[in-house]
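I'd like us to work through together how a protein chain folds, taking it slowly. We need material for that, and I hope you will provide a protein of your own picking. Go ahead whenever you are ready, and we will take it from there:
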Amino acid sequence: MPTRTALDPFENLPHIEIVHLKDVVLHEDHDERRAERIVARLKDEEILRNPPVVAPIDGGRKYMVLDGANRTTALRLLGCRDALVQVVDYASPDVVLDTWDHLIAEMSGGHLLDQVRDIGGDLRLVEMTVDKIDDLLVRREILCAVTTMGDGRTWAVRQGLDLRSQVIYLNRIVAVYRGKVEIYRVDAEHIRNLARDDRRPTALIAFPRYTKEEIVSLTLADVKLPAGITRHLIGGRALRINLGLELLRSDMSLKNKNLQLRDIIRQKVLDKKVRFYREPTFLFDE
């Protein structure tokens, strides 16, 4: 987008831009079920509501998706040449990297553990207390932890290779249940309560935290984490841009597309349709 000036109404707005989709790379795999739902909605509405959030990497030659892997995948499946994105500085303290855990149902904990054991290699499952598991996850000494909800037993999954090999094994573990059951992303701090929950959930898979440097390194090596593990907390998210997909599909130059985008946003500002909420907000139409 053009350079902003002190009198520019864009000065305090998020950095919204249209970029070539071929330059947008994922640091994590997409979720097939979620991506399919987004494709169906985009076909019906022909509007992209919320832009994926990306950060420049590789000297600005690529944009790494921090949030929006499924939206990005849906745009590719729909044949869009370009993508609407919100660009942020990954080094900024306003971008915080955290971790999601996976809560699943419809697959027994015992069956899940058997499938993980069958992966083979140098994977080892060791039963431990939750307190010890928490410490090992923080220190990144285990790949993940599996808690079976019926009996509250927790198993550490160990594997001693380098980071890249660990991520490859993580993908194999998640592939055991991905696409077969619904995956619910839950906050790591709820692990203690969930371990005592013997209702519909059957298993909880807890993951360690990664650093931003590791995420960039894996992405540049074309090694993706499983879907729904990293959680980026980003201040000043841009929502409800509501851009028509025809602009993203067209053969128009990026320069002209971004000029059109700038006019669209300027008009929203003039019409007082842009609002900033400092307080946490619930959305009921995602």
